[in-house]
Design a protein that fits this description.
Elements: E1 2-4, H1 6-9, H2 17-28, E2 42-44, E3 49-52, E4 65-66, H3 72-86, E5 90-94, H4 97-103, H5 106-123, E6 128-131, H6 144-164, E7 171-173, H7 182-185, H8 194-212
């Protein structure tokens, strides 16, 4: 089950990193697997609603628990029911940027991370989780306090993962996507373009392969510089 904010739900016209990791696992994982979650749609910037099915390639399982403008604060109360209802075994989680940008400081955000873990485990004691560190966006270049909160959260998240990891319900902390560059890997300084989608998927794939032997190494020869998706105009951007 992919779990995340606007970088995970994606918007109309995109593939999303969810599509990239599905492609990768389909090519490298030796057994059957399913992508699960209570939501299916992309965010529609034209209507400011999560109602679009306009995937760049719609022929993949769209399921997820992700929302535009939603963070650990929002997902912690939802994750238990989502895991229980959809029988999720593994959570691929990319959260934190929106929290730190608008809702909570680093320490409060980690408290919500801990609540998320507790709720997920209450629903399924054996659930596995992979967390992605927060990727600093373009705001971090000019907003020093925000950049400091991002750096502090990533430190606190690493400590929380070490503290919460359990053989019965292991938690992995993926590495920051290799060579991620907001000028090259996003279309607006925050949201991933095709190159960024591949790099995020590769971070999750690498963590699962190295720690659990799931799938294989991500194929870095995949076309990271694929043509950019069409993005509708928007009245509001994050």
């Amino acid at each position: 089950m992919p779990v995340g904010d606007s970088m995970t739900i994606g918007s109309a016209g995109e593939h999303t990193w969810r599509y990239r990791i599905w492609q990768h696992l389909r090519a490298t994982y030796g057994g059957p697997f399913a992508v699960v979650g209570p939501r299916e749609t992309l965010y529609d910037k034209a209507t400011d609603t999560p109602t679009s099915y306009e995937y760049a390639d719609p022929d993949f399982p769209h399921f997820h628990l992700a929302g535009w403008g939603e963070g650990w604060l929002h997902m912690a109360p939802l994750i238990g029911e989502a895991v229980r209802a959809h029988r999720a075994d593994v959570l691929l989680v990319s959260l934190g940027l929106i929290d730190l940008g608008f809702y909570t400081n680093a320490a409060q955000t980690v408290d919500n991370l801990r609540a998320f873990v507790a709720e997920a485990r209450a629903a399924k004691p054996s659930v596995r989780m992979v967390f992605l560190p927060v990727i600093p966006n373009v705001r971090a270049r000019t907003d020093a306090p925000f950049a400091a909160e991002v750096a502090l959260f990533n430190e606190l998240q690493a400590k929380a993962v070490a503290d919460l990891d359990d053989p019965r319900s292991p938690i992995l902390l993926a590495s920051l996507p290799e060579s991620y560059d907001v000028d090259h890997d996003t279309y607006d300084g925050t949201h991933p373009n095709a190159s960024g989608e591949h790099r995020i998927a590769a971070a999750f794939a690498g963590a699962m392969h190295q720690a659990w032997g799931v799938g294989g190494e991500y194929d870095t020869s995949e076309p990271a510089a694929a043509p950019e998706p069409f993005h509708r105009s928007s009245r509001r951007r994050r």
